[in-house]
Amino acid sequence: MRIGFLGSGAFGLPTLEALLAAGDHEVAIVVSQPDRPAGRGLKERPTPIAEFALARGLPLRRPSDVNAPAEVAAIEAAGPEALVIVAFGQKIAPAVLGTRFAINLHGSLLPRWRGAAPIQRAIEAGDAETGVCVISIAERMDAGVVHRAASTPIDPLETAAELHDRLAALGPSVVLPTLEDFRLGRLAPSVQDESLVTRARKIGRADTRVDPAELSAAEIRRKTHAFGPKPGCEVSIGPSRVKLLRVREDGEARGVPGTLGTDGSIACREGSLVPIEVQPAGGRPMRWEEFLRGARVAAGTRVEPMAAEGGG
Known about the structure:
By secondary structure, the protein is an alpha/beta fold. It has two domains: 2-200, Rossmann fold, CATH 3.40.50.170; 205-305, Formyl transferase, C-terminal domain (Methionyl-tRNA Fmet Formyltransferase, Chain A, domain 2), CATH 3.10.25. The chain has eight helices and 17 strands.
């Protein structure tokens, strides 16, 4: 089939690559977000999808509003029989969809975690597994019928960035069979159970606040892996400001909650936390043992939150 691909983030790259590699589909048009300032110099850069499309010589449009009449006309002129939408970043109006078969790849096992940050919220909640779904486009966010899904366990030491890449790699395994089901007239979608819906709200600075005196080691582990490295969970350890990158739990609290233990662990409200990798402010990521050697902080030093209150 002729495919229109609407995507911006790197989450869609494996699916777009798979569509090209399959050989039985033609990517008739790629639509992505406009170039944005990025990096230290804030130089304008294309999205990961736009960059890939440019490198492959694919027909590409980068509108600020995909619903503008000129963009709707451009998609119509490309003549796609189906639209595949992955991490596009704009609300798509019915005029764009027309009467075509249109699907969206979502990074959770719907109806769990509808919304902006499904991968991070799954880790924060301590979910044992997550996955990807292919859904239809609906008026309400992520509320469409589910065509296919694939699940995967979440490792306790896995970060959101790592899980993002694993879920992205799962995308082709559900998107390509769904397109084939549509072509052969054998779609069998399931309606989401509204009573099971959970919301994956946008991440705010308040989400990243971790206070060992108030939270358990398990809660801090989940927040650290869900929200790092950006915006990241930061703490002050004596005079040092440190971003936690990867941590593990280690038994009962050894010392006063919110302080550094003699063995280098951090005593929490429940349990002990052992950082594995950290990043001092203005510095590079490093092993926890390396930081302790350089910082020379004593046992009993307070470990306190740095993130400001607020956010949403």
